[in-house]
Amino acid sequence: MAQEHLTIGRSEHIALPELGIARVAAKIDTGAYRSALHFQRLQVRTVDGEKQLTVTFQMGGQRKKKVFRKFKRVAVKSSNGEVSKRYLISTRVRLGAHSVRVQFTLFDRSDMKFQVLLGRKFLRGRFVVDVGGKDLVG
User: Fold this and answer.
1) Gap between the terminal Cα atoms of the chain
2) Which pTM value belongs to this model?
3) What is the CATH number of domain 6-37+71-128?
4) Per-domain residue ranges for the chain?
């Protein structure tokens, strides 16, 4: 029997509970492999022999700071073909009644309409996108 998928719109409001963000608009991008998250500032430092990534987020009208002990750098190819190295972190996304752990690359999206982009890795096996709709989950 086929698994039923939840239909979501081309943009949805989500929560990032582990980051303390209660509500922020996210663009659903079926062309993007990974998800991306806007950061305002980041700093890598070594504490007690362990590398830590401190990230300041400014989104949804809130400013939050979070320290990540698990992170890595990955190569990301943009839509125009340029390859850049970005930090990759993992955090939970809440969309309606669904809660999903998602890997995000950190990127300065300050010049873009949406501070959060949800890609195919987030969608796969869970959601289908109705490109004619917005905030279908509410």
Assistant:
1) 28
2) 0.90
3) 2.40.70.10
4) 6-37+71-128
Residues 6+ apart with CB under 8 A from 40: 56, 57, 58, 63, 110
Decide if 59 contacts 128 (C-beta within 8 A): no
Residues linked to residue 16 through DSSP beta bridges, in sequence order:
21
Three-state DSSP state, 128: strand
- Enter the tokens of residue 22: 């209660």
- Do the beta carbons of residue 135 and residue 11 sit within 8 Å? yes
Query: CA–CA separation, 68 vs 134, rounded Å?
Result: 32
Dihedrals phi, psi of 21, to nearest 5 degrees: -100, 115
* Averaged pLDDT in 10-residue chunks for the chain of 138 residues: 82 96 95 94 94 93 93 90 94 95 94 94 94 90
**Using H for helix, E for strand and C for coil, what is the string for 42-70?**
EEEEEECCEEEEEEEEEECCEEEEEEECC
